[in-house]
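PROTEIN–LIGAND DATA SHEET

This sheet pairs a single protein chain with one bound small molecule, magnesium ion, given as SMILES. Inputs appear in the order they were entered. The predicted three-dimensional arrangement of chain and ligand is reported afterwards as a token string under its own label.
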Amino acid sequence: MDGLGILSDDFVVVGRKPSVVREFGTRGTGFLGRVVLSKGDDPVLGRKVLVDLATSHVILVLGKRGYGKSYTLGVLVEELASLPYSVRSRTAVIVIDTVGIFWTMKVPNRDQKELLKKWGLEPKGFNVKVLVPKGTLPFYLEYGIPVDGYFAIRPSELGVTEWLGLFDLDLDSEAGSLLAGAVVEAEDKVGNYDLDDLIRIVGEMDASPHVKRSVAMRLAAAKEWGLFDKNAPRTVEYARAGAVNVIDVSTFKGAFGGQSIREVVVAVLGKKIFEERMKYRKVEEIQEMKTGRPVSEMPLVWMIIDEAHLFMPRGRKSVAKDVLSDWIRVGRQPGLSLVLATQRIDRMSDDAITQADIIIGHRITSYLDIQALSAVRPTYAGDSLDKHLATLPHTRGLAVLMDDVTEKVWVIRVRPRMSWHGGGSATALVKL
Ligand SMILES: Nc1ncnc2c1ncn2[C@@H]1O[C@H](COP(=O)(O)OP(=O)(O)OP(=O)(O)O)[C@@H](O)[C@H]1O
Ligand SMILES: [Mg+2]
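PREDICTION REPORTED AS:
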């Protein structure tokens, strides 16, 4: 199987200009898969596909249910975790885990041992750090699911925009202006405030009692989410050099007003990291002028988001979308990268599709999705994209890869995972 008979040592590099490959070779690239050379479900495979992981990219992973999007994200995370020290020590990885499946990366993929062998790889667990909401920690511990700690945000890290977004309040409304005033007051008077401080301040503000009560009740409800903790690390500390932090947001199910709690998590993380990287990029520029080495203590950051349409929805307001759009539009300069996976292209904001520089399209059959993609990426769609997507065999893990940097389109097979893939379907059938 797998047509691996004609393995070649040769490679193609995607996402990196040939001039950079000439200067730096393949250092800082990841082994994503191999080029597909023949048709059919079990194609002959050729050159290795290496993807640049040392500079900023927006990578979009698309495809219909069950054709390998989460699996491919896992491969990219494995490669980021395997970068040589010189690159890894300048890189931080944050996985926003919407389904709660990335903790399995700690466990070797013994199930596909034979397949891995054909690819010259071995099962291997990775040292990822899994953080779950505070309230769910006892559950994970009871079932022996390996988690490393809890994830929480300091209330004081939310600005007025996030607070209003969280409760879907307008600054022009009575409740909105009351909350905004209380947030500013809490920042001024308390600094690192908690929700009780905010509730107290709301009570002390000049407003009608029923408005005060409605805002205080919203804040009291937010206490139940287990997201806020004034003793939590600062959010930028979740972007630690050399580390892969998996933030399990799968149990942050609640929504308040228009925004889900998960969106607020991504918005706050993304905004703080963006601001910090903007500052440190300047430090790196000064260092480059002085020493020729553009380094600082703040690493470049990769944020990996599965089910990304939840955070970049088309046609509705979202605090997460605003922040991620900034990453997409100007992230290149401060060195911020996004990997976004979705099965709902038609529900995804155009920004992500138009600005992505690498698109990995697993099987896509829905007319709406091909339309959405074609509408914003006409150059590819006009030529090979439609054709490739239409003829892509059913095999899981096959994909069309479009690379803006080299302006090439490849049909590839994504390599097998070294670590356990946690995305399998639940089944009531067990071996007797
Ligand atoms: N590159 C690959 N090599 C081998 N097997 C693969 C590969 N990609 C996917 N698979 C298989 O396909 C299954 C489904 O893949 P995955 O969970 O990534 O789907 P998905 O596109 O994320 O689906 P969903 O939209 O439901 O989340 C995996 O459990 C795995 O067995
Ligand atoms: Mg998935």
